[in-house]
Amino acid sequence: MVQFGLLAMPMAIVVMSMKINAFAPSPSSTSRDGSRWKSPLFMGKKKKPSMAERRKRRSRRTPSIKVERPSVLAELPPVDAWEKPAPTEVKPSDPIPAEIDNDSVVDGEADETVAKASSLVESQRKSVDCLTFVRKRVEEYFPIGDAAKALVEKGYFVYDGFLSSGSDEDVAFGNSLVAEMTEESFSMLANDKLERDITRLVDGEYVGGIVGGERYADCPRLTEYVVSLTRHLPPLLNNELVNLQSTMPKLDTTASMGTLRVYDRNTRLGAESLLSAPSSEDAIKRPFGVICGDGEDAETDSRRLTAMLFLSVKDSDANELGGGVTVENEVKYGGVCDRMILLRSDLCSHRQEPWKGNAEDDKAICVTVHFVKETV
Question: What average pLDDT does this structure show over 30-44?
Fold first, then answer.
């Protein structure tokens, strides 16, 4: 028994030593960095390296990379360089604006409003004065009886000084009105508000409608003349025609057609030079005709009376400047300033003479109003 125990004891010690050495590194083993283990034979849990040691190990494993600075950034300072900035200049502050006087602003706006209101009142006053003046000329001065009789017998009637005759006050206002209408006509010509009459290309004439509405501002006095004449002349003429037992149809008191015709001498001379057209009066005579025309057009045309008002230069020589109207088989009536010529639109054969003008009187005007028959 004793002998068995002595033999068994060394065996147990060997087994225990093998179990313990199973957890220890081999004496010849090396660490990751190539050094041998310095730990004792009996080593416990491995110690966790610090962050600094980890960075040191990574730097040993990874070779350093040199980054070259791009040439594009050569003019710029490196990001790790610090340059002292220039001292900040303190600019003087803007002066504090003076306190706005609200009373002066209100007064300025009030003055502007008053000026606009005054301008509007003045415009309305001129409009009323013009409408009233034309009505007065028709009802108090125009010889309506003689005009009706002449229209029945001859088909036309001529009357001078339609706007500028009578009392000194009426003459002054009429001359002023004629001047305003003339200025409006020339302004429309200068601002391309009129179209070239291609049917009379060589004669240098421009024509346009007097329609009011949005175009009222182009020619307020001309528009008011047409409106007032349409409102007041037909009723008086209708009564006279009834008394004369005329077959002429009644004229409408609410509708008419207004047109403006302006002659420009420079345009005529330019057209004659361009087209090599003769400039003698005989060579440019126009044919006679009726305003409504002939045939089927005359039956559908509603115009029955035409009023032409000439606004040439006052006291000018009509024979020298041309213009006016020649009635067939009758005499020629020149385009004297403020002369009105009434024509039967459906019966009176006539021709409107071309203007000639001269270096001083190079423009002339004719305002035409076509009165239409009354519709049932």
Answer: 49
